[in-house]
């Protein structure tokens, strides 16, 4: 079944977006920037989730860093890079992303799946939960640093 594609300006506010979705009986639209380029995808479900608060997984992972074993941590993918870098002694200047989930996705180089593993420096990241192609939580294991002779 082919359905028409709806476009909305990326500057459209949430209230008018919801009205637009209701009026057109749709739940998804493409956001366009001022030049007519695609800026992203807007889904009614995402708007409602943001307005009503976190889902169950986010509530379970309300603490962005949880130690779950020796040198093993559960991280919220939304943990800001600066907070993560400060907590684990990483130089944030070498990372041009805003969240730990963004870093792991970039290191992976593709859409993440549950159970994917990627390493960076002395850290092993195992993706624990993915929702809508976005990492929600991950497990980070620290490997001991080996001094070079």
Secondary-structure-based class equals alpha+beta
The first-level CATH class of the largest domain is given as Alpha Beta
What is the count of distinct domains? 2
- What does the average pLDDT come to? 87
Oligomer: single chain
Distance between the termini: 64 Å
Total DSSP helices: 5
Strand percentage lies at 25-35%
Task: Give the overall silhouette.
Answer: elongated
What letter string, H or E per element, gives the SSE order? Answer: EHEEHHEEHHEEE
Main beta sheet strand tally, sense and closure:
5 strands, antiparallel
Q: What is the C-alpha radius of gyration, as a whole number of Å?
A: 19 Å
Q: What is the architecture of the largest domain at the second tier of CATH?
A: 2-Layer Sandwich
The counted number of beta strands is 8
- Main sheet: strand order: 4-5-8-7-6
| Spans where pLDDT lies below 50 across 5 or more residues | 56-61
Topology overview:
Elements: E1 7-9, H1 14-24, E2 28-32, E3 38-43, H2 44-52, H3 56-60, E4 65-69, E5 72-76, H4 81-88, H5 100-108, E6 117-120, E7 123-131, E8 134-142
Parallel strand pairs: 1-2
Antiparallel strand pairs: 2-3, 4-5, 5-8, 6-7, 7-8
